């Protein structure tokens, strides 16, 4: 006899918060690039999941589901921001690399601003897929589930994002 | 198509890394702490329920958390009430009449026409801001009066949202306590009623409040 339940049971909601809140925050920070906005989106995301929790089945991919909700929340947030003309297009808090001459620092800042602008210009879905793949340690089936799309389309979104960035920042010569 | 096959130009790779590698760890910790506190305020940990077996509108079920009533239902079997509550709140309520004596006795007296104001605390924070706005507007309708769906829409400053108002009222989790039965159609008809017993119950409640003749 084991204590294992016959029916697969859902993890308690608190366990989900415990396991994923930090990574979802990092994702939302990458999407909003603002600690306060990321925090607001994090609360909104978990509140929505809490409300939907009773309806989720025990065999759901909870991690992918969290990303799905977070991606929608970040999108709604970005739309609202744009409407209010509060776009974060400037980089305020970049810590200068040590051991750089002032000229090198200026050059670095220009590059960072250009890359940041290019990433921000990506369509929401491509940017989301790009962040999930590059920084969130997700595989394509998970990205597909999070974006509510096929694995091929998830792959294509990452590919398009990388292609655009690569094109813009080709090494001259 | 393997996106990882071709490496990114090194200066792009470095810049991306500088930009997105990691947020301030202090900000992560702060966000997690705030999230925990935020969720604690939002989570309905325990629900209690009781039954008024014999009222003028049949058996009435009440469920509450420590902030107030979260659900009022009638015209359905107890098992259906329990299933619906569990589905809506994620926890099955515990039968605990002693926790709800005040709420239950006030509601009973109201339904018997012995008191005219309910004044029972409720908790509707799990609803959308719009739904809450609509329900709080309905709460303002005095006993003995009726408003139209359009009146409510105007009151909340969204005169075109008449249909959405109807839907929000239809999802009122605490009927009677929030008197959505006092909202009727503009054509003089009753409109709809999603509470148990449907329009017959709506009519009974309006008769009790002196708005309609029996």
Short description:
The complex is a heterodimer of chains A (173) and B (214). Chain A has 173 residues and is an all-alpha fold.
Report on the architecture of this protein:
The complex is a heterodimer of chains A (173) and B (214). Chain A is mostly helical. Chain A contains seven helices and no strands. The mean pLDDT of chain A is 86. Chain B is an alpha/beta fold and 214 residues long. In chain B, strands 3-2-1-4 form a four-stranded mixed sheet, sandwiched between helices. In chain B, strands 5-6 form a two-stranded parallel ribbon. In chain B, strand 2 and strand 3 (68-74) form a beta hairpin. In chain B, helix 6 packs across helix 7 (162-170). Chain B is elongated and about 80 Å long. The chains are: A mainly alpha (173), B alpha/beta (214). The A-B interface holds A 13, 17, 21-22, 25-26, 29-30, 35, 38-39, 42-43, 46-47, 50-51, 53-55, 91, 94, 97, 111-112, 115-116, 119, 131, 133-135, 155-156, 158-159, 162, 165-166, 169-171 and B 1, 3, 6, 8-9, 11-12, 15-16, 18-24, 27-28, 30-32, 34-36, 38-39, 42-43, 86-90, 126.
Largest interface by Cβ-Cβ < 8 Å: A-B, 42 and 34 residues
Distance between the termini of chain A: 70 Å
pLDDT averaged over residues of chain B: 87
Please state the overall shape of chain A, judged from the principal axes of the Cα atoms: globular
Oligomer: heterodimer
Kindly, what is the distance between the CA atoms of the first and last residues of chain B, rounded to a whole number of angstroms? 74 Å
Q: Major β-sheet of chain B, in short?
A: 4 strands, mixed
- Structural Rg of chain A: 19 Å
Overall 3D form of chain B: elongated
Structural class of chain A: mainly alpha
Unreliable residue runs of chain B: none
Mean pLDDT of chain A: 86
Number of helices of chain A: 7
Which series of helices and strands of chain A comes N to C?
Answer: HHHHHHH
The proportion of strand residues of chain B reads: 5-15%
Element-by-element helix/strand order of chain B: HHEEEHEHHEHHEH
As laid out across the biggest beta sheet of chain B, the strand order is 3-2-1-4
Work out the number of β strands of chain B.
Answer: 6
Structural class of chain B comes to: alpha/beta
Beta-strand content bin of chain A: under 5%
């Amino acid at each position: 006899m084991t204590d294992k339940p016959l029916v697969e049971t859902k993890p308690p909601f608190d366990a989900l918060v415990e396991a994923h809140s930090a990574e979802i925050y990092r994702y939302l920070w990458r999407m909003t690039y603002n600690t306060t906005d990321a925090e607001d989106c994090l609360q909104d995301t978990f509140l929505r999941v809490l409300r939907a929790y009773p309806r989720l089945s025990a065999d759901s991919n909870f991690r992918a589901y969290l990303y799905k909700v977070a991606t929608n929340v970040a999108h709604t947030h970005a739309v609202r921001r744009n409407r209010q003309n509060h776009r974060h297009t400037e980089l305020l808090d970049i810590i200068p690399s040590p051991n750089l001459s002032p000229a090198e620092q200026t050059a670095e800042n220009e590059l960072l601003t250009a890359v940041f602008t290019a990433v921000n210009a990506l369509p929401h879905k491509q940017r989301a897929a790009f962040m999930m793949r590059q920084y969130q340690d997700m595989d394509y089936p998970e990205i597909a589930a999070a974006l509510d799309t096929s694995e091929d389309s998830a792959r294509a979104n990452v590919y398009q994002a990388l292609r655009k960035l690569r094109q813009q920042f080709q090494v001259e010569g | 198509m393997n996106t990882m096959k071709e490496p990114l130009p090194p200066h792009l790779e470095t810049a991306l890394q500088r930009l997105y590698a990691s947020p301030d760890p202090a900000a992560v910790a702060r966000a997690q702490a705030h999230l925990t506190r935020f969720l604690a305020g939002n989570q309905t940990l325990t629900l209690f329920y009781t039954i008024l077996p014999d009222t003028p509108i049949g058996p009435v079920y009440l469920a509450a958390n420590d902030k107030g009533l979260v659900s009022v239902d009638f015209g359905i079997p107890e098992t259906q009430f329990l299933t619906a509550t569990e589905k809506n709140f994620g926890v099955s309520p515990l039968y605990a009449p002693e926790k709800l004596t005040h709420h239950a006795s006030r509601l009973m007296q109201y339904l018997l026409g012995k008191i005219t104001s309910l004044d029972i605390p409720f908790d509707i924070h799990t609803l959308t801001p719009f739904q809450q706005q609509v329900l709080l507007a309905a709460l303002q309708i005095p006993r003995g009066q009726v408003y139209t769906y359009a009146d409510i829409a105007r009151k909340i400053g969204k005169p075109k949202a008449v249909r959405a108002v109807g839907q929000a009222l239809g999802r009122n989790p605490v009927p009677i306590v929030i008197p959505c039965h006092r909202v009727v159609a503009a054509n003089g008809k009753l409109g709809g009623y999603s509470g148990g017993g449907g329009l017959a119950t709506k009519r009974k409640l309006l008769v009790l409040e002196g708005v309609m003749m029996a």
